[in-house]
Each structure stands twice: as C-alpha cells, then as structure tokens.
Amino acid sequence: MKTLIHSPSPVGASLLAISGRTKGSPASWLLPGLLVLTLAGCAIGPDYQRPQLNTPAAFKQAAGWKAAAPADALERGAWWELYGDASLNALQQRLEQSNQTLAQSLAQYRQAQALVRGTRASFFPSLTGNAGKTRSGQGAGQSTVRLADGSTVTSGASGGGISTSYDLTFGVNWELDLWGKLRRQLEADNASLQASAADLAAVRLSLQSELAQNYLQLRVLDEQQRLLDATVQAYARSLRLTENQYQAGIVTKADVTQARTQLKSTEAQAIDLKYQRAQLEHAIAVLIGVPPAEFELAAVDGVPALPSVPVSVPSMLLERRPDVASAERAVMSANAEIGVAKAAWFPSLSLSAAGGYRSDMLDQWISTPNRFWSIGPQFAMTLFDAGLIRSQVDQAEASYDQTVAGYRQTVLDSFREVEDYLVQLRVLEEESGVQQEALDAARESLRLVENQYKAGTIDYNSVVSVQTAALANERSQLTLLGSRLTASVQLIAALGGGWDGAAPQPGDSRQ
User: Fold this and answer.
1) Each residue of 229-264: pLDDT tens digit?
2) Would the pLDDT of 41 be above 80?
3) Spatial separation of the C-alpha atoms in residues 511 and 315, rounded to whole Å
4) What is the DSSP letter of 126?
5) How far apart are alpha carbons 457 and 447 in whole angstroms?
6) Rounded to an integer, what distance in angstroms lies between the CA atom of residue 326 and that of residue 137?
7) CA 155 vs CA 32, 42, 139: distances in Å
8) What is the pLDDT of residue 160?
9) Percentage of the chain surpassing pLDDT 90?
C-alpha cells in the first residue's frame, strides 16, 4: 500500500518556494534545500569489499605465482603466434571476424552497455510533449418531474451537438535520488557491464583455444598420415620381395600371407585417419563461420613446434583470467543490489511540472488566456507490505552470498586448471623422452631384422613383429606430441592467454 504525501512539508515547501508558488525569504527554503542535497549524497546499502580468499602463495607445480585479481581489460595479444604457423594465424583472424558464437557474446555485451546508458538516464528529468485535437458530443433531451401536488414540470437539457478542443501540453518529471537507489542500481549495472566484458573475453579466449587445439591436432594427423603412407609403401615393397622369394622357393606361402595382412591392416589405419581429419576440418570451418562444404585445409609438411613455456610465469597472467574477473564483477553487482532492495524502505521524492495551452478555437489556441500550468513535489512511501520489502532484501543478500561462493569456486578451479596443465606438460615431457628412447631402439631393431631377413637367416614372422612394434612407437610419439601441443594451448588459456608478448628464454622451456 502506497500513500502519497503532498506539501506542505519542509522539503515540499522549499521546492514550491523555488518554483515561485510560495512566497518567503531565501532563508525559508535554503535549509530544507540543503537537507535535500545532503540526503542525495548518501546511498543505502553496503559498500563493496572484495571477498576474502584463502589462496596459496605459489603453485605446487611451479614457483613464482601469486593470487588472482581481475585485470581482464589488459590486452592479451596474439598468443597463438607462439606456435609460428601462418595458417593458424590467418584462421584466428577469420574467427575474430566471422564466428557466430563470438558475435552472440558481442551482442550481449552491447545489451549490457545499453542497460547502463538507460540507468544513467534515470538521473535526469524526463520531458514529455503532447499536442492533440478532440471532438466530443452530447445528446439533448428533456425530463419530466412530478411534484407533490400532482402537477408535472418538464425540463429540457441545453447544449448538445459537437464541440472541438485543442490541447498542447509539456510535462517534466524528475525523481530525486535521496537514498542512493539509482546510484546503487547504476553501480550494479556497471558491474554487470564489466562482467559482460569479461564474459566476452572468456568466450573469445575459449574459441581461440578450441581453434588452436583443433588445428594442431589436424597437423599431427597429417604427420601420422604421412607416416602411414610411407609405411604402406615400405610394406608393399616387402610384400613384393616376399612374393619373389616365395616364387624362388626361399620362403613359404605363410610369409606372403603375413606380408599381405600387415600391408592391408596398415592401409586400413591410413584410411581411418582421413575420417578423423575431416571431423577436425569441419570443426575449424564452423569456428571461422563458414559451411564445412566450403572450407578445405591443405596438408603441409611438419608440425608446429612446441612453444617454450616459462617455468616462472608472471603473476599477471593468472590475474587476467576473464572468468575470475566476471565472477568478481557478479559479486560487485549483487552487493549493489542489496542497496537497491533496502532503498525501498525509504520514501521517494519526485518533482513534476506541466504546462501548455488549451482552447476550443484553433485561431486562439496559442494565446495567453488559454495557457495553464502546474508544478509540485510528491512523496511516496510504502506503509505496509506484509514483509515484501524484507523478503526482497533477504533475497538480495542470499544472492550476494551465492555469488561470493561462486567467485571463490571459480578461483579454486582456476588454480586447479593451471596445476593440472603444468603437471601434465611436465609428465608428458618425461614420457616423450622415454618414448623417444623406445622409438630409437625400435628403429634400430627393425634395421637389423630386415637385414637378417634379406640374408635369409630369419623368417618373415620375426620381421612382422618388429615392424609392428616400430610403427606403434612412431605413432605413439606423434600422439604424445599432439597431447603436449594441446596441453600447452590449455595452459595458455588457463593463464588468461599469452605472456604479454614477452619472448620466453630457451633456458626456461620444457620441451
């Protein structure tokens, strides 16, 4: 239930005095006017304080790290250029220009910008204007009244017909922000805008990371395709050699069958890679905003080099994680919403004024005798709502607690991700070193066995076993390279993207 309280009141009287409708000395309205200005300087609700976090001084898997603090406005740079691949650079530019998910997030950011502009506009008076012409009519009639003596009297209604009126009105309305409700709302919307900007950065970084991972995996598949194609050619030569030896009576039919089985099995593996590559190519096409049928990525020789990842990454990298920034901005917005909810307990003061011209004749419409005006303040306050405002305040406070917990969880998840990718890169590095030793041994074993087979000292079954092991080790090493490349991209994304263009030193790398 809202009750409208009109002047006279100390504040209302002062406003009327200012408007010229109340007479008095300046001292009679100066003090109330100053009271209004003083009240306008306060804001209901708690001021924002960053939630306390229990954060480690350094990462377990790497030294030199510190706690995160939002710095999402900093430029991340073209971090993918660390991989030194011109095609990847070009694809990232196309993603920025044509990706529809990114365009969606950009539109959401523009909505948040418009919301802030709309909230800021509520601080200023609104001016309205209206001009119109009205035609109205009333029918004429008569009525009969019977008197006490039995006689009757007939009366006729005068007027009737159609009348025309012209109206020109201008109005001004302004709500004073006495308790800071509008300021708290602007604070909340500004925080939401910053959160939207961080969300946009997070979406952009996620899409860039996804594109880089797909591209690098595709290049690893290209390398595996070249390996299998070369292996198929080698196995085809071995099959021809075995067939010649069989015709000469040197080997048995079983050797020929084994050679053919190995060849066809490897050909099947090579065909399977084409399906996997096509899927990655289609995913890249969608990321850059084109139909898969209109996109083709030609194979090239070599795989992009694994970039040098510094062991002691500057702390600013973690501070630029956009999801951490977005989570804190959500806390800031929720804190301001508490003030908006609490301001409903206090009265609102609005000033309104209207004026214009009204006449029954068009030629005398805009003239002094036909002018009218009105001006005055208005207080509105909720006297009883059965606990509605209290429930809204409780809801705002609970929402704040929820966003604080979400912020703390986001920070914990960010620490976990960095730890995961740091240890993953280190373990994969160690595994790659051992796998390289196994590959070198397999290549040497294959060379020796092939020489023995050509000399006729062993059967082809021994050759098949060693060839299979060598191929498996070759593919395992390439798979490990792909995993390391993917982990490096994920680590860069977990750190917020890039190292500010600082060139890593060779001694700081883990290859």
Assistant:
1) 999 998 998 889 889 988 988 888 988 998 999 999
2) no
3) 22
4) E
5) 14
6) 62
7) 57, 65, 15
8) 56
9) 28
Residue 132 near residue 164 (C-beta atoms within 8 A)? no
Burial of 196 (0-12, 13-18, 19+ CB in 10 A): buried
Q: Which pLDDT does position 358 carry in this prediction? A: 85
Token couple for 11: 């504040």
Please write the tens of the pLDDT for every residue from 299-353: 998 899 888 765 445 455 456 788 888 888 888 888 888 888 888 888 888 888 8
With CA atoms as reference, report the closest residue to 311 among 404, 426, 215, 397: 426
Burial of 282 by CB count in 10 Å (0-12 exposed, 13-18 middle, 19+ buried)?
middle
Look at phi and psi of residue 126 and say left if phi exceeds 0, alpha if psi is from -120 to 50, else beta.
Answer: beta
Q: What is the SS3 string spanning 424-461?
A: HHHHHHHHHHHHHHHHHHHHHHHHHHHHHHHCCCCCHH
b or e along 420-446 (b: 16 or more beta carbons within 10 Å of the residue's beta carbon)?
ebbebbeebbeebeebeeebeebeebb
Q: What is the mean pLDDT of residues 475-498?
A: 90
Q: Which residues does residue 155 pair with via DSSP β-bridges, in sequence order?
A: 143
Say yes or no to pLDDT of 27 above 60.
no
d(CA 134, CA 169): 14
Residue 505, SS3 per DSSP? coil
Give the C-alpha separation, 447 to 441, whole Å.
Answer: 10
Q: Which residue, chain included where needed, has tokens 């041994």?
A: 441
Location of structure tokens 């600082």: 502
Model confidence, pTM: 0.75
Q: What is the C-alpha to C-alpha distance for residues 335 and 337, in angstroms, rounded to an integer? A: 5
- Which residue carries 């912020």 as its tokens? 407
Q: List the beta strands (DSSP E) in 138-279.
A: 142-146, 152-156, 162-176
Give the mean pLDDT of 92-99. Answer: 94
- Kindly state the tokens that stand for 395: 């809801």
For residues 212 and 243, is the Cβ–Cβ distance under 8 A? no
Hey, which bits of 138-219 come out as E strands?
A: 142-146, 152-156, 162-176
- Beta strand 142-146 pairing with 152-156: antiparallel
pLDDT at 271: 93
* Residue recorded with tokens 């790497």: 62
Which of the 8 DSSP states describes residue 8? P
Retrieve residue 163's tokens.
């009348």
Helix axes 322-342, 388-454, angle to 10 degrees: 170
* Helices marked H in 1-132: 10-19, 26-40, 86-98, 100-121
